[in-house]
Design a protein that fits this description.
about 120 residues
């Protein structure tokens, strides 16, 4: 059974930082592309950042230079360091594991950026 468990969400002031983590089990983690997506109220889910098996990264334009995705294959975890947070970053953030037809999601964690 595949499980992706996110942690690290919460409330932060504009300009602050948060670090999300996702622990994966039930998959051969090292060969999956891992990603973070987010969904704000009334909006479609969108890709925030992704990291491939070869550690190639991809970021949404809106987070480039502020967010950093990383993976630890020894611990089966993927992290998202979020700096200089803005109110428009407020959303539910989801961890994703993708390999061919295998496409798995975590339950999501809320990030609220507000003063």
């Amino acid at each position: 059974q595949v499980q992706l468990v996110e942690s690290g969400g919460g409330l932060v002031q504009p300009g602050g930082s948060l670090r999300l983590s996702c622990a994966a089990s039930g998959i051969i983690f090292s060969i999956y592309t891992m990603g973070w997506y987010r969904q704000a109220p009334g909006k479609q889910r969108e890709l925030v950042a992704a990291i491939t098996q070869g550690r190639r990264t991809n970021y949404a334009d809106s987070v480039k230079g502020r967010f950093t995705i990383s993976r630890d294959n020894a611990k089966n975890t993927v992290s998202l360091q979020m700096n200089s947070l803005k109110p428009e970053d407020t959303a539910v953030y989801y961890c994703n594991a993708l390999l061919g037809t295998g496409n798995y999601w975590g339950q999501g964690t809320q990030i609220t950026v507000s003063s």
